[in-house]
Amino acid sequence: MELAxxxxxxxxxxxxxxxxxxxxxxxxxxLDRVRExxxxxxxxxxxxxxxxxxxxxxxxxxxxxLQTRLKRS
Length: 73
Description:
Blueprint (H helix, E strand, L loop, with lengths): L2 H9 L8 E4 L4 H12 L13 E4 L2 H14 L1
Parallel strand pairs: 1-2
């Protein structure tokens, strides 16, 4: 699913919170810009309560992150 759609659904609590991981530095500027805009607006949702998207260094990091987060839920 497209990252923007998933992120927005998590932001608006349209879907139950699930861990999301993206691979590599490619996504960092995208995430930084969205977070910059989002955190500039007071809201009780979204990343004001914690990071919604994890940037993984590689497949192993993504798998480890997802496994850890899924065990919590």
